[in-house]
Amino acid sequence: MVQVAGASWLGARGALAADATKAGLPAAQATLLCAGISNVFALDMARAEQQFAQVATAASNNAAGHVWHALAVLGRVMIEGPARVDEARIAADARAALAAVEPCRADGSGWRELYDGVAALLLARHAVNAGDGAAAVLLLAGALQDVRAATRCTAAAADADVLLGAYEVFINGTPWYLRLPAAMLVAPGDDAAGLARLERGAQQACLFGVPARVVLAIVYAWREQYDRALQVCDELQARLPGNHQVDALRAHILLREGRVADAATALARVIARVKQDPRPGAVALLADHYYELGRLAMLTTNYPAAGAHFEAACAASGRKQALRAWSTLRLGTVYDAQQQRAAAEREYARAAELAASVPIVRQYAHLFLREPYAGQCLE
């Protein structure tokens, strides 16, 4: 069922995607790569990782299998939380992709430039996590240079547009102390150009059409074009019924529009479906959805429901230490809102202990230990 849902996204573009990913791959590996990409979009990360690992092993001198394996591992990390070996595995895949000689730049397709750009982005993320900001900036600049080069090549242009467009739009949404250095050291943002690239990528990209639509929905919501954002969600939901994150995206858009009750209903439906889905990648989303339901309950001052949702988020958080810390902090705010100061202080102290790798949670916890939570916006 999941494979059918994912494969339906490529639909008539299946042959085009196979051609695009071939670039040096034997036909069998190109087909397997496309199957893995479909499973990524269907949230079946475990199967996708296996398929990409097979491609990377069978065609170790081709960048495609290494890049997509790294992306699948990263997707699983974002959904389930990190395991100790995951960060090293992502970095190793990215380095293997950069060291591969296929596809070559001389073929003019742009796939080599695109894969190099994605690998450099993954290494930039790794550098940030390691506290090496200077290396991250250099890697990001190199990545965008490669991606921009890919936009000038016919085969990979639309997929490269998705990455470059996302950067151009999102960098303008960052605080000035990040936006200005990025403009000077990497590349400036450009909302209009970025949106045009994303819209083009959503229609024409072989591999990144799904991410393009997800980003488009967010950008439309930022611009208060809620009908367009929800229309994109409808398209995604129709083509990817096994991807519960589409429903969560819909809830996010409804909340931005001020439709709190509708957002809560959407999230409750997601939770009901996720509970019937045995995939680890689906079950791991429960904590995130419970946390968002808790936030919505706080907005409507339904404190008992908020507390229950945050407790459920803690219980389902698994390896997601940061989410557990946030949920515990939020439990403290629920108790403060109900004038139960002793219980609130207990949760803030627990949150401070859990937040070793989440400085903002630790700061809030210490602040609210000194003085009660008074309704501040935290996220």
Main attributes of the structure:
21 helices; Serine Threonine Protein Phosphatase 5, Tetratricopeptide repeat; disordered N terminus; 75% helix; mainly alpha; single chain
Descriptive notes:
With 379 residues, the chain is mainly α. Among the domains are: 208-271, Serine Threonine Protein Phosphatase 5, Tetratricopeptide repeat; 285-379, Serine Threonine Protein Phosphatase 5, Tetratricopeptide repeat, CATH 1.25.40. It has helices at 2-10, 14-22, 27-41, 45-58, 63-80, 86-99, 111-129, 133-151, 157-170, 176-185, 191-204, 209-222, 226-239, 245-256, 260-274, 280-283, 286-299, 303-315, 321-337, 341-354, 359-370. The longest helix is centred in the first third of the chain and has 19 residues, at 111-129. 51% of the residues are buried. Residues 1-16 have low confidence and may be disordered.
**Counted beta strands:** 0
Overall structural class, as computed from helix and strand content, comes to mainly alpha
Number of helices: 21
Largest sheet properties: none
Please tell me the overall pLDDT. 89
Order of helices and strands: HHHHHHHHHHHHHHHHHHHHH
- The rough form would be described as globular
What low-confidence regions span 5 or more consecutive residues with pLDDT below 50? Answer: 1-16
Helicity level:
over 70%
**The CATH class of the domain at 285-379:** Mainly Alpha
Q: Specify Rg, calculated over alpha carbons.
A: 21 Å
CATH topology of the domain at 285-379: Serine Threonine Protein Phosphatase 5, Tetratricopeptide repeat
* Residue fraction in strands: under 5%
User: How does CATH name the architecture of the domain at 285-379?
Assistant: Alpha Horseshoe
Distance between the termini: 36 Å
